[in-house]
Amino acid sequence: MKINEIGEFGLIDLIAGKVKRSRKYQPAAWQGVKIGIGDDAAVWQGADNIELATTDTLVQDVHFSLKTTTWEELGWKSLAVNISDIGAMGGVPKYALVTLALPGDVLVEDIVKLYDGMLKACKKYQVAIVGGDMVTATCTIITVALWGCLNSGDPLTRSAARPGDKIAVTGFLGDSAGGLALMTGDKIVDTSLTKYLRTAHLHPEPRVNEGQFLARIGVKAAIDISDGLVADLGHVCQSSKVSAIINTEKLPISPRLKQVFGERALPLALFGGEDYELLFTAPATVMETVKKESTCPITVIGEITSGKPEKVTLLDSRGKVLYWERGGWDHFLSSH
Amino acid sequence: MKINEIGEFGLIDLIAGKVKRSRKYQPAAWQGVKIGIGDDAAVWQGADNIELATTDTLVQDVHFSLKTTTWEELGWKSLAVNISDIGAMGGVPKYALVTLALPGDVLVEDIVKLYDGMLKACKKYQVAIVGGDMVTATCTIITVALWGCLNSGDPLTRSAARPGDKIAVTGFLGDSAGGLALMTGDKIVDTSLTKYLRTAHLHPEPRVNEGQFLARIGVKAAIDISDGLVADLGHVCQSSKVSAIINTEKLPISPRLKQVFGERALPLALFGGEDYELLFTAPATVMETVKKESTCPITVIGEITSGKPEKVTLLDSRGKVLYWERGGWDHFLSSH
Asked: Of B97, B112, B128, which is closest to A33 when you measure between CB atoms?
């Protein structure tokens, strides 16, 4: 069977199972591991604190196009998507390794711009680029490995959602997908709107402080929204063995996304992906404290239930179930 | 200018300089960093111990060919080359992130074999695969990020060689390059010889225990031989601002390499690369202790000098200088 027949998540499940089974042959190596494959970041017990690590890759013409993205924007984003993974666990990002696979005819000045973007993200989020690798390839691929530590609380995980928890998100949803749609020629609007949505896609600002705040205040379950709200909530439900209901009328959609996309704003917010906002769940009392003390906008959009496992139900404003087919982005499935 | 005009090392120098200059804008982020870009692994001060991290990438048809390498061998090697980098700093490898860039038509069973090879290396060297990423691409690229810690002594670095130090290596040199030459159709010999040399290339056994032993006993300078003896000794000389003399007659060359390649064995040992043996330097007294207490073969092959900076001089058995042009492997230079 080919990998595009079982898809990215099928292949990850298969490998995760294989790696998990190997643990019994090397118990010493796994002794300190708290979270392995399957969350936003790996977590282990360090000598004196909890440590985290993650890696994320951007492939030319899969994750970005050099026709619509500048090298500097690409640099920012390649760091930001990794920083977001550490943030989604409540961690503090610290040290990065950068691997570049590059065709030989890429211009040196473009690589300088790429690092300009990376170093801007490093400056904002206090990350140090301490190493990496450089290889030739037929297209540009940027891989960042990032680790960090946990300053307080437990790591936020995908597996800690419990029935009765409220579901909330930070910020707005769908702007990034709107920006991508505009860049790929979807629609032309006035410049300030284009700029706002394009920036949402190319210059995401990971919620690192918010993740640390959530961990400190006692929230246990979170994920960053990279595959899309419904898909990522699905990941949480799968890991936590629960289900979820979303009241779609409550989704935080920016006035600007509505202005440009009208009724299409809702599907963009539900399925669009790459928002890099945090999706988290907590009991109602904890959620009240979060809403009171958070310095960024928090919107409660639904509830975790004990219904049919791993099912995400979407309700419209009258409580009627909305049916949907596509749940996000899967890299290998040939049907996409 | 295109990157294949300044080459891999030119580009790394340029980026390392840029990253270094950024340190002054973010002193807090760099506070704990002991070694950044430019050694086998990055080193920082953790909460209670010294931590290390490295990353290494294998690209299809650049670093390996699926015509001559099985998926399982590829899995072993992708871990081993990273484990070797941690070993060369005297560290203990611990946790790995594995990123696979794969064409959609790769077979699932081949990825299973790839992980069989990885998990064998994990078992032998007590490494846990705790996460990774998976993306589509036009060719297969395997990136491993690995970190570890230092149990005793200081990290072994490229920058600690001093004039008067003896230069030594572990094991044999050139077998891996011999294996590669055989696999790419260079020569046909009897099966046991082919197997031995092929294994040296595809199944390197990183010198992790030896690296830890060297750090413990007080050796300060080391590198693993991946680019080739002369090239890697050149890296040490460059970082340490010293020069080196190699007595080529002293190089540890296996009888089997000599049997197959005759006079070509020497250039293979000097320039071949991918031996993953350790090259290290130490004052004569320390070197005596190393030779006495080491459990693996150690050969002294030359001496660090204060001559013309960064120059590696090769002497033949009569003390005559041998001239050479090519110093190893550079990924981007179009002349190769």
From this structure: B128
